[in-house]
């Protein structure tokens, strides 16, 4: 199994708050790894350090065998890392396909001046990505008119436009209806497995996590308190204590699970 991401001893303190303490993790090709934990556990801080928005105080981040701690996001993106965000960031006034064409052009280092014919730029490639995420029929719709779930799919297509080997997905299903959440992650999982992309994702919906994660990592107050498959984590007493304490968050498969305490 090819390890894409290897993090060791990662730490970040804000003033007196130890947001992340000594976190180590790996993600391999084709693997779906969920980083879960209550609000304030340190998930976003980990993501931002891996993606270069925040410089770690300590620790090593190796992407595809290369040390990247402290590197800028653009450089990390060029190595083959895609990212989706909790809040979708698309150009509402453009057509759906143009959002992808802009992303493709930007990855190719094109400037706005040279983009006079954006409508023709890699149109087939852009359409193929839209088809892949299931919104090909919406290509010429104004992006601002998309339903929220379709916007999230567009964001996934934009993240894939760089042909990443690793995808970082920060609450990919936030704000979606429960059925759409499972479908969205099923789509991401299918694409990841077909293409050998590793996915590290944060998620508050435990149904989504248990359905799709190959491995779970549980953060609490900056520390990793448990790691393993769904069954291992479901039965971990420390994890159960963090999640409400009564175990209802880990309802049997099929039953609706609750989100962690906020
Ligand atoms: N820029 C910052 N300045 C000061 N403290 C911060 C900053 N960013 C995060 N923190 C603190 O660091 C801790 C970890 O926050 P982080 O956002 O990483 O948690 P999280 O698990 O992503 O939470 P959520 O699920 O709410 O997104 C929290 O105590 C938070 O208040």
Automatic annotation (TrEMBL):
GO MF assignments: ATP binding; ATP hydrolysis activity; L-isoleucine transmembrane transporter activity; L-phenylalanine transmembrane transporter activity; L-valine transmembrane transporter activity
Domain of life, per lineage: Bacteria
GO biological process: D-alanine transmembrane transport; L-alanine transport; L-isoleucine import across plasma membrane; L-valine import across plasma membrane
Gene Ontology CC terms, in alphabetical order: plasma membrane
UniProt domain ABC transporter: residue ranges: 5-246
Swiss-Prot/TrEMBL keywords: ATP-binding, Nucleotide-binding, Transport
Statement: the UniProt record of this protein carries the keyword Metal-binding: no
UniProt-listed Pfam families: ABC_tran, BCA_ABC_TP_C
Sequence similarity: Belongs to the ABC transporter superfamily.
Name assigned to this protein: ABC transporter ATP-binding protein
Lineage: Bacteria, Pseudomonadati, Pseudomonadota, Alphaproteobacteria, Hyphomicrobiales
């Amino acid at each position: 199994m090819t390890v894409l991401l290897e993090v060791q001893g990662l730490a970040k303190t804000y003033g007196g708050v130890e947001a992340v303490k000594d976190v180590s993790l790996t993600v391999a090709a084709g693997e779906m790894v969920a980083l879960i934990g209550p609000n304030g556990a340190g998930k976003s801080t980990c993501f931002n350090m891996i993606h270069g928005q925040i410089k770690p105080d300590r620790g090593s981040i190796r992407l595809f065998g290369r040390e990247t701690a402290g590197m800028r996001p653009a450089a990390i993106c060029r190595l083959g890392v895609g990212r989706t965000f909790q809040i979708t960031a698309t150009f509402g006034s453009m057509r759906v396909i143009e959002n992808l064409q802009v992303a493709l052009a930007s990855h190719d280092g094109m400037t706005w001046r040279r983009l006079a014919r954006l409508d023709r730029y890699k149109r087939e490639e852009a359409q193929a990505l839209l088809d892949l995420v299931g919104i090909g029929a919406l290509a010429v719709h104004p992006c601002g008119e998309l339903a929220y779930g379709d916007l999230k799919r567009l964001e996934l297509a934009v993240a894939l436009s760089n042909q990443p080997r690793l995808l970082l997905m920060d609450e990919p299903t936030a704000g979606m209806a429960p059925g759409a959440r499972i479908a969205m992650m099923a789509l991401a999982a299918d694409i990841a497995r077909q293409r050998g992309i590793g996915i590290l994702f944060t998620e508050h919906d435990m149904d989504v996590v248990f359905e799709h994660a190959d491995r779970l990592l549980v953060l609490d107050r900056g520390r990793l308190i448990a790691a393993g498959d769904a069954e291992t984590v479901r039965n971990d007493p420390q994890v159960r204590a963090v999640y409400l304490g009564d175990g209802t968050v880990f309802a049997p498969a099929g039953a609706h699970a609750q989100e962690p305490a906020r």
